[in-house]
Write a structure and sequence with these properties.
By secondary structure, the protein is an alpha+beta fold. It folds into two domains: 41-95, 2-Layer Sandwich (Ribosomal Protein S8, Chain: A, domain 1); 107-269, no CATH class. The strands form three sheets. Strands 6, 7, 8, 9 and 10 form a five-stranded antiparallel sheet that branches. The longest helix has 33 residues, at 2-34. It has helices spanning 2-34, 52-59, 82-95, 133-142, and strands spanning 41-46, 66-70, 75-80, 107-118, 147-158, 164-170, 183-189, 191-195, 202-221, 224-241, 246-252, 259-269.
Length: 270
């Protein structure tokens, strides 16, 4: 019995020595792994079907990854740990798939009508193009101006996910308070996209903006009228059913209540 007890004691002692021999290495390995800043990577993911900003808005909330996007370049940028960015990249691939509703990359054609409402009697209903007379009829039922007149019509065309802009000059005769000199305007949107199927397409314009600079009468002295340049405009996101005319904004022009109405219609073109 004494011999067995000595052998057992010796064996336990040997096991303790072996464990102690490995213990520093294990501690060192854990310390080396936990020391230093966590590894971070940056990945640029090219988006082929969806709008980058739209994907970023879905992905960013609650994500451990920093998410930015650029519609012009067509990319989403991820910054974070390798594991988190890999997970986010997989999510982007799952979101960036061709729409089952719109199978072809149709261009979007947008027509913008600027219609003036005035308390003068310069324009008659028949003097306006037939295409906008139903719109003017609806406007006159809500806003009782004495006359409505088409100021200008402009066209913008872009691919899905792209921006578009245009600018021009409009000769405005809405009100005696408005300078007879030409006024300038600008129209643009950040991106355009399409949802639903071709027969019931809904066109979404992100960040549509209309702005104009006009001269408004500030003071009058004998034989002279002084004008002050003012900025007018409107901004909003817009949803348009293909072929439908929609009034998306009204902006006042002069103190007599004259205004400009912004009317949009859009369609898909091959």
């Amino acid at each position: 019995m004494a011999g067995e007890w000595k052998d057992t004691k010796a064996m336990n002692k040997a096991l303790i020595l072996v464990a102690l021999a490995f213990f520093p290495a294990a501690v060192f390995s854990q310390s080396a792994t936990s020391s230093g800043p966590p590894q971070r990577v940056t990945k640029v993911i090219r988006v082929h079907n969806e709008i980058p900003d739209k994907i970023a808005r879905i992905l960013a909330p609650g994500s451990p990854v920093m998410v930015t996007s650029d519609n012009t370049l067509g990319v989403v940028v991820l910054k974070g740990s390798p594991e988190d960015t890999a997970t986010a990249e997989q999510t982007i691939k799952e979101l960036d798939v061709p729409s089952a509703a719109v199978s072809t990359a149709n261009d979007i054609e947008l027509i913008v009508y600027l219609i003036g409402g005035s308390n003068s009697s310069a324009a008659t209903p028949d003097s306006n193009p037939a295409a906008i007379q139903p719109v003017i009829k609806q406007l006159s039922a809500i806003f009782p101006y004495k006359s409505y007149e088409l100021i200008t019509t402009t066209l913008l065309r872009s691919q899905q996910g792209k921006s578009a802009r245009t600018s021009g000059i409009m000769n405005d005769k809405l009100s005696p308070e408005v300078s007879q000199h030409a006024a300038t305007y600008g129209i643009n949107y950040d991106s355009a996209s399409v949802s639903s199927d071709r027969s019931k397409a809904v066109i979404h314009l992100e960040g549509f903006r209309f702005n104009a600079k006009m001269g408004i009468a500030a003071s009058t002295i004998p034989n002279t009228t002084q004008y002050q340049i003012v900025d007018i405009g409107t901004k909003s996101d817009v949803d348009l059913r293909e072929g439908q005319k929609v009034v998306i904004g009204k902006t006042d022009v002069a103190n007599d209540g004259s205004a400009i109405f912004i009317v949009l219609t859009a369609k898909l073109v091959d």
